[in-house]
Amino acid sequence: MIEDSFVFSKNFEGEFHTAWQAPSNIALVKYWGKHGQQLPKNPSISFTLSQCVTKTEVRFRPRKANDTAFDFLFDRQEKADFHPKIMQFLDRIYPYLPSLENHHLSIATENSFPHSSGIASSASAMAALALCVVAFEKKHHPQWSKADSLKKASFLSRLGSGSAARSIAGPLMVWGESTAYSNSSDLYAIAPETALHSVFNDYQDSILIVDKGQKKVSSTLGHGLMEGHPFASQRFEQAHQNLNHIKTALATGDLDLFIDTTEAEALSLHAMMMTSNPRFVLMQPQTLAIIHKTVAFRKETHLPICFTLDAGANVHLLYPIAQQQPITDFIQSELFAHCQDGQYISDQLGTGAQKL
Ligand code: PMV
Q1: Are residues 319 and 202 in contact, defined by beta-carbon separation less than 8 angstroms?
Q2: Is the CB of 316 under 6 A from ligand 1?
Q3: Of the residues 25, 28, 31, which should be mutated to test ligand 1's pocket, given the most ligand atoms within 8 Å of the CB?
Q4: pTM reported for the whole predicted model
Q5: CATH 3.30.70.890 in the chain, residue ranges
Q6: CATH architecture assignment, domain 2-195
Q7: Ligand 1 within 6 A of 157 CB?
Q8: Average pLDDT taken over every residue of the chain
Q9: Low-confidence stretches of the chain (pLDDT beneath 50)
Q10: What is the per-residue pLDDT across 158-180, written as a single tens digit (0 to 9) for each?
């Protein structure tokens, strides 16, 4: 199905050059399970990060006979293994931007974080590429507002990787229809207008790298595990409830509620993987050691630190900047030993993508 309002009929041709930087994001309420063309089975909300970014430069030129759709450099080197994912993305977005198919794209991209860190780069990568494509389209639709182009960028990013829909603006992004956020949509993410309590200003995310390896479960396989999952409907219902809790916590600065909901979501995501068919245990002994020590440290010190997880073994530790000193001391003395090669990334809330 094509969402007609995202297709602009005007055909155009020409050369264009642009470059965008898009951030990674960490979900507080997790998206797990999809249907149709990259539509979420439940709404999700994420913090936009600021340091983990993908920078992408694209040169567009009219495509000649026998010309390929694109060429691609990652860290200035050819990366043929990324080609199928990019071609799949272009094939999915062509219907929403027919003129694009008549152009060859020279894409050069790099990440601020190591590709082999186990940090998913598909969200920031797809968002950065989508923003370049939208900049090209906007040149021919100068009447578009900034909000129009960000909406279309989120819509297109979603077609590359669901969570990429949330890698456009910030510091918060909501994707998926819910009663909690009245203008939310399954088609694109929105930056909610509700105020974010000041305790979350510059909120910190220390990403502890437990496993630098390739993903053990591909996104497509992972989301597919929710088809016929025995707990699917309860899980989708739980995500709606948790979205309400997180919304309240973010607006009021209730950190107990924030911590409780964020950790419950992380473990619920992994519980879904552990109870699907086939089943996966993506947490590792070091993941559990970090979780146990973090919870014990919180109980002992009453400092508002909490953990969350993606679909992998790495741990994100979230905490207010005001408590940065004692918490980084704790991380350095107690948790670094559990990181692979002592690797970690210090990040914090960000404001979204930028034109370079
Ligand atoms: O964007 P995808 O298809 O790679 O899915 C990401 C799913 C999680 O990272 C596990 C959760 C989320 O909402 O980001």
Answers
A1: no
A2: no
A3: 31
A4: 0.96
A5: 204-348
A6: 2-Layer Sandwich (3.30)
A7: no
A8: 94
A9: none
A10: 999 999 999 999 999 999 999 99
